[in-house]
């Protein structure tokens, strides 16, 4: 039911009224038109002895008893009505019948609300997945674009040891080379993350090598960053360890 249309969603016609599913009635000629404004149920046992005796709807449609209960969403909006008519008088304005109709109306409203919530949840999930996909593609592009300037930095840093340098400078250059290598590994990790999220998987490069140099490199970089701190580390790992050493660093 809308502001100007009355459409039958489901019909059980045992009195040959002639209304089918999807059929429409002129909205202004229905009692539902009034229920839409009031949200109140209407029950008529016998039109002739009710306030609706001169109402145009029973006169036009030829029914004598009528019941209609609004189907209201949890947000207070009206979906439509659950109604029944009979060409003969019948007891419908009683507690048992009204309770049954109200319960059915509430059940229909609950089902409609649940269905709408499911649709909204699926749409929100789809949008979140699209955003996540775009974000992960952006990360992949960013990591890819970092490779070229990083490659230039690596090439330039590797040329420095060929120039005349004192011991202190050579130590700094060696540390720079290790840091550039680590930056390259970070970019590789970002690329791996993006590939993993986008379904490409993460490739591990496992090698059997001593673990101590890898850990010492990390410690040396920490010392170069935190020059005002005293960082002590002691390792005693004689055997080789099969891991992805660059990723571990």
Automatic annotation (TrEMBL):
GO biological process, one term: osmosensory signaling via phosphorelay pathway
PROSITE patterns noted in UniProt: HIS_KIN (PS50109)
Enzyme superclass (EC): transferase
Record's catalysed reaction(s): ATP + protein L-histidine = ADP + protein N-phospho-L-histidine
Listed EC numbers: 2.7.13.3
Sequence ranges assigned to domain Histidine kinase in this UniProt record: 141-249
Keyword Phosphoprotein: no
Molecular function as annotated in GO: ATP binding; phosphorelay response regulator activity; phosphorelay sensor kinase activity; protein kinase activator activity
UniProt keywords, alphabetically: ATP-binding, Kinase, Nucleotide-binding, Transferase, Two-component regulatory system
Protein name: histidine kinase
Annotated source species: Rhizobium soli
Lineage: Bacteria, Pseudomonadati, Pseudomonadota, Alphaproteobacteria, Hyphomicrobiales
